[in-house]
Write a structure and sequence with these properties.
With about 120 residues, this protein is an alpha/beta fold. Helix content is about 45%, strand content about 20%. It has a 5-stranded parallel β-sheet with strand order 2-1-3-4-5, with helices on both faces. The chain starts with a strand and ends with a helix.
């Protein structure tokens, strides 16, 4: 599986990419939503997107809103965020997100969430 990790933190990307590599998957890094849109346009075979909420240039909300308007991807999107208030989760659910995980997370949480997102996407 090829995963686009969209997060402005090199430490988060490194942590997630090591988790992915440990299970035989590949990762591609985008530091913000602007880079993510470019990578999606130029790269074939991305299976899932892990999207941070708080980033410069284009944050997770702006990326999702752009996708709703332009429909540039139908790849499952998992939000990664430290925020978990009910209003935040409601907002995330309104934007066609497959799943949501709270940072920090373990490898098991990540892959259980992948399984749910893929089931929902293929259902």
């Amino acid at each position: 599986m090829k995963v686009l990790v969209v997060d402005d933190s090199p430490a988060i990307f490194t942590m997630v990419s090591l988790m992915l590599e440990d299970r035989g998957h590949n990762s591609v890094w985008a530091e913000d939503g602007v880079q993510a849109v470019s990578i999606l346009a130029a790269t074939k075979g991305i299976d899932i997107i892990l999207l941070d909420w708080n980033m410069p240039n284009m944050n997770g909300l702006e990326f999702l809103e752009k996708n709703v308007k332009e429909n540039f991807t139908n790849i499952p999107i998992i939000i990664m965020s430290g925020e978990n208030s009910p209003s935040f989760i409601k907002k995330v659910q309104s934007l066609s997100v497959s799943e949501f995980i709270v940072k920090p997370f373990s490898q098991d949480v990540l892959f259980n969430t992948f399984s749910l997102a893929n089931l929902m996407h293929n259902f």
